[in-house]
Structure formats: C-alpha cells, structure tokens
Design goal:
By secondary structure, the chain is mainly beta. It folds into 2 domains: 42 residues, N-terminal domain of TfIIb; 66 residues, SH3 type barrels. The chain has 1 helix and 12 strands. The strands form 4 sheets. A 5-stranded antiparallel beta sheet has the order 11-10-9-6-12, with no helix packed on it. The chain has a 3-stranded antiparallel beta sheet with strand order 1-2-3. It has a two-stranded antiparallel ribbon with strand order 4-5. Strand 7 and strand 8 form a beta hairpin. 10% of the residues are buried. Pfam families: YjdM, Zn_Ribbon_YjdM. Belongs to the YjdM family. It comes from Mannheimia succiniciproducens (strain KCTC 0769BP / MBEL55E).
Length: 111
Amino acid sequence: MDQMPKCPKCNGEYVYHDSVNFVCPDCSYEWSGEDVAEEEETKVWKDSNGNVLQDGDDVILVKDLKVKGSSIVLKKGTKAKNIRLVDGDHDVDCKIDGQPFSLKSEFLKKA
C-alpha cells in the first residue's frame, strides 16, 4: 500500500484520499496531490546565515562537530568542497579529508 502524505497544514498523519483530493480529518484541510509534488520540487537549503546552498558549493563548519560512533571531531573552520544536497535530516553530503560525511546545513556557512 502506498504511503499517504502528511497534512501540509497541521502535519497530521491520518490522511485519506477522497477521489480527487487528500483530506485531513484532524483539521479538515483538503488538497490535491499535485500541490504536494510542486512543494517538494521547490525545496531550498540554507546555511546558518540564511544563504541559499546549491550542489557544488564550498562550505565551512561554524562549530566543532563530534562524529557519531567514532572519536573524530570535525573542527570549526574546516572546509568541505563540492557538497551535494540531499533530502533528509542530514541534508548535505560532502567529503572532508577524503572521508564522506553527512552534515546538517545549520552547522555550515557558504565559503
């Protein structure tokens, strides 16, 4: 069975499809599936200063970050070149010193 989208107004998860539109029983909001597809295409990634990030940009870390599951600490001021933007919680894929990392854009600034 297909995964139903969450309500864009209240983020409710009990959404159902009513022939043409999606309906949220919690807030009574109705929308078409085409509206959701258009919103997903217009996602914009921003750094800690509010600058828009794009694939291929160079970024700098704005704080020390501990790497989960290891003793590595990425130091403030470390530069990551040629980033790739992805959907998800950690929305920036990059390589620092040849090692791949997934980082959150809120801890980066555009170089």
